[in-house]
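TICKET: design request
STATUS: open
ATTACHED STRUCTURE:
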């Protein structure tokens, strides 16, 4: 025990220096490309800032009375940029801050902005524990991770999503372990709105949050704010300059086949039609890409991983099973009477729902795995809370650490794997950890829901389900 205590103390002292050093290396690498060989998409300097440039361009378009989504139209901004696809409000609320700087200066400022948001997310997680090692581990996991570097290099707007996931996790954490419901609700508001007005990654959490008494009222308020703002960005010509009109929109909004065939950016060879310049494309794009699998070496989703490994297309519905299971568990958790177990289960389910993005959505880029880092950072803190899945946390944490490491692309560049197996090997230490984490969490959640379904009515033995796990 003395040896372990000594190792813990030394690691705790060393972690801040390692974290600061890695952040410095990341920032230097943005200038000189030191870490770029670990990424396929970053090997060419022409991709640096590629996701950022569409953000200020979207607001500049608005000033020119053009569509926010007409990334490649109007006055040229930079030679290259990905298509802007965030909520149109993000263009006004955030994109406007950077639109008046030169492209390179704006990218540098946006990089610092993203880094500050990620550091703040780590800080929020660290505040939930008094253990020095776990505090410092929070910063290490969120900052010393290769997906984090990918976020900064590409200039993607993913830092708000990392912060959003952090706020939602910590909201449920506070509902479970504190009496400060006011702060918990404030965190939930910030977490939901951050996602709603950037990328709607938290939408699958809504059934659970609406079913829980503790989160229902706040979630409804956030949905109300989201709906009002979204309607304004659809209805007001000044915010939606190239709108297709209500009648035309209603004519296609439920025609999923038409949307998938005509509004998919990849099928359209990056040519935008009138539908894709309307602000509604932010929502319709989810449908447009729902069944499409982009077989690109830098796509790290389970559907593409499996199809690449088998060298054939598999039915998309198979990969929606994790979403269906999470929905059923949301209903089951809402009926758990033991408050602590119910909220602990809800927190675990929110973690699982976050992971479904990598398992069920087809187009997952490597930087998007940074959204899983707050989960990994929170796991050691949850272990000290005596959660019902306490015994599984060391394994979950170990698996989660694979998100911090580089993908196996660098191995492929050294060894030149077999052409057929190469993409699967490159994706393996992203997709497989996500799948394993999800499966382990599902087993624990199904056990606890089943236990309470069987014993929940025996109120005179209220603690029986808990004893099943701890005895």
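STATUS: resolved
RESOLUTION: sequence designed for all positions
ATTACHED SEQUENCE:
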């Amino acid at each position: 025990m003395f040896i372990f205590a000594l190792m813990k103390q030394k690691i705790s002292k060393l972690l801040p220096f390692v974290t600061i050093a890695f952040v410095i290396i990341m920032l230097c690498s943005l200038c000189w490309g030191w870490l770029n060989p670990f990424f396929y998409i970053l090997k060419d300097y022409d991709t640096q800032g590629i996701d950022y440039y569409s953000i200020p361009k979207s607001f500049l378009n608005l000033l020119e009375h053009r569509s926010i989504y007409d990334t490649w139209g109007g006055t040229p901004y930079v030679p290259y940029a990905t298509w802007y696809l965030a909520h149109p409000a993000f263009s006004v609320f955030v994109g406007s801050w950077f639109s008046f700087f030169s492209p390179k200066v704006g990218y540098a400022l946006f990089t610092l902005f993203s880094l500050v948001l990620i550091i703040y997310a780590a800080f929020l997680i660290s505040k939930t524990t008094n253990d020095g090692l776990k505090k410092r581990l929070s910063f290490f996991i969120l900052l010393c991770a290769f997906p984090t570097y990918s976020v900064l290099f590409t200039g993607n707007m993913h830092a708000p999503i990392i912060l959003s996931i952090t706020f939602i996790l910590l909201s449920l954490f506070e509902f479970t372990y504190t009496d400060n419901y006011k702060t918990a609700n404030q965190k939930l508001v910030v977490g939901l709105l951050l996602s709603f007005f950037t990328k709607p990654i938290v939408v699958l959490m809504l059934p659970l949050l609406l079913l829980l008494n503790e989160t229902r009222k706040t979630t409804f308020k956030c949905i109300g704010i989201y709906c009002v703002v979204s309607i304004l960005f659809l209805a007001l010509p000044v915010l939606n300059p190239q709108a297709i009109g209500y009648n035309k929109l209603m004519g296609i909004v439920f025609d999923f086949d038409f949307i998938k065939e005509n509004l998919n950016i990849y099928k359209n060879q990056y040519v935008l039609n009138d539908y894709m310049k309307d602000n509604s494309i932010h929502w319709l794009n989810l449908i447009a890409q729902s069944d499409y699998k982009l077989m690109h070496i830098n796509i790290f989703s389970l559907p593409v991983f499996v199809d690449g490994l088998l060298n054939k297309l598999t039915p998309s519905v198979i990969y929606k099973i994790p979403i269906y299971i999470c929905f059923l568990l949301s209903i089951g958790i809402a009926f758990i009477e033991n408050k602590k177990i119910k909220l602990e289960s809800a927190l675990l389910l929110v973690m699982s729902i976050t992971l479904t993005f990598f398992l069920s959505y087809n187009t997952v880029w490597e930087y998007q795995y940074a959204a899983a880092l707050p989960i990994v950072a929170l796991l050691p803190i949850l272990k000290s809370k005596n959660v019902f899945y306490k015994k599984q946390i060391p394994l979950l944490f170990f698996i989660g650490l694979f998100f911090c490491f580089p993908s196996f692309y660098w191995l492929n560049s050294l060894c030149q794997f077999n052409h057929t197996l190469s993409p699967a090997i490159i994706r393996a230490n992203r997709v497989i950890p996500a799948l394993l984490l999800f499966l382990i969490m599902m087993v624990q959640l199904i056990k606890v829901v089943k236990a309470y379904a069987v014993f929940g009515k025996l109120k005179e033995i209220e603690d029986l389900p808990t004893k099943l796990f701890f005895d």
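CLOSING REMARK: The chain has 21 helices and no strands. Residues 336 and 342 are 5 Å apart (CA to CA).
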